[in-house]
């Protein structure tokens, strides 16, 4: 009976997953209070060479020729008037000491949860505010500024996602251009352009090249993404070939590739699950849903490992 009860509970909760995912997509939440922000007491996980990184101080700044600041997933920031998002506050503090020999790159998911809505939409002003909070961190900064798209900017690649992204691109660049005293012009901001996959090549120095790639383009159905003459690539194979060519052309330089999705992952998007994920699988989707489902609970992790979802890394 206990096994039957657990099976019934598991599949009943499983049946609610599409609704829960849809509800999470629709819900805006309070800034700094969503599931995308770590709860109090949350600690990052380090492994290998990253352990004890605090003790390995960087070299004297007089020897640093160029700096690149990378920050991402700040699409639901705490506003400055409420203390500000800690990561943006830290970025702002660092940028105050930097000059033209530096760059900043926002790595996607710039507006939670659905990119930039159309004018007049009920959540348009909220989305604008979340984007402005990130842009305002760049005021007075003289270095180069860039932003790449993430899956939330594309609304996970569903129909209408590119339009959301284009609105975000236009709004961000108009906002930066409208105050030339605060934002020095350094060229295109949201790259690659117009929802295309890239590669978008940026020569930061004679010996340093940055290549921007829109990784969500590759995860989006062809019916919902631009291709052909609009982007210079008809399919993913052609886009990858162009990326390889740019890398080949710059093989004598330092190359920095910036994109939203990582090349590989040691987390669930890479097919790696902890023992707790197998015992308490519902906690992967519903925070604090620690319902023990041994053996049965392995169905979801194994399905993700061998099948995956559209945001998992092959």
How is this structure best described in words?
The chain has 314 residues and is α/β, with parallel strands linked by helices. The protein has a domain at 21-28 and 65-258. 32% of the residues lie in helices and 10% in strands. It is built from ten helices and six strands.
Order of helices and strands: HHEHEHEHEEHHEHHH
Report the count of strand segments: 6
Q: Can you summarize the main beta sheet?
A: 3 strands, parallel
Structural class: alpha/beta
Assembly form of the protein: single chain
Give the radius of gyration.
Answer: 21 Å
Unreliable sequence segments: 1-27
In what order do the strands lie side by side in the largest sheet?
A: 1-2-3
Structure annotation, total helices: 10
- The average pLDDT is 80
The fraction of residues in strands falls at 5-15%
Q: What's the end-to-end separation, in Å?
A: 39 Å
Helix-strand blueprint:
Elements lengths: L1 H14 L1 H10 L40 E5 L14 H10 L6 E5 L17 H13 L7 E4 L13 H17 L22 E6 L2 E5 L2 H5 L16 H14 L4 E5 L16 H5 L2 H4 L13 H8 L8
Parallel strand pairs: 1-2, 2-3, 5-6
Antiparallel strand pairs: 4-5
Helix pairs in contact: 4-5
